[in-house]
Design brief:
By secondary structure, this protein is mainly alpha-helical. The protein has one domain. It is 64% helix and 5% strand. Helix 1 crosses helix 7 and helix 7 packs antiparallel against helix 8. The longest helix has 37 residues, at 81-117. The mean pLDDT is 93.
Length: 194
Amino acid sequence: MGLAADLMNEFGAAVTIMGGGDIVPAMDRGLLDGAEFNNPSSDRLLGFPDVSKTWMLRSYHQDCESFEIILNKAKHDSLPEEFQAILQYAAKAASSEMYWKAMDRYPKDLQAMREEQGVQTYITPDSVLEAQLEAWDTVIENESNNSEFFKRVVDSQRDYCERVVGWHLEGNTPKEPAYRHFYGRASTDTSTIL
């Protein structure tokens, strides 16, 4: 949706945006060649494995998820400071809880789709990921030219990512060698690498 749809359009896809509950019936009737919703858990619950036995992993259109809590700013600001603090801590706790529960649930549902529903999983080729990044360049340039606010947001995000992702890549030990060491295989051995 939104920028992700713009990315896929730039990437050459004919995008149809629809509600989550409408995707599987549309695929079943042959109205869509492929679809994306969110993650292994929601895709499984919506019935994607019933209409498609192919599931692609990795994409720059939605590289991560976050849990958001939306509040009415005027109502929030009218609360006493201690209640505002309670809401802030509760939102952070709920977001953290959602993240660790998702990290536990997603691999279980992906494995169930493979083993119980016959879904084949594939790793998106690096060449496709690189083409996505190039398409992102175009989308970001177009949107930045059309909106000063968008440009300020993207510039802020880039500054943050340069610092944080740079630290992550430099300061964190790569996980793939440890995975191979302890489990005797690559983490991607359960998927076909295209």
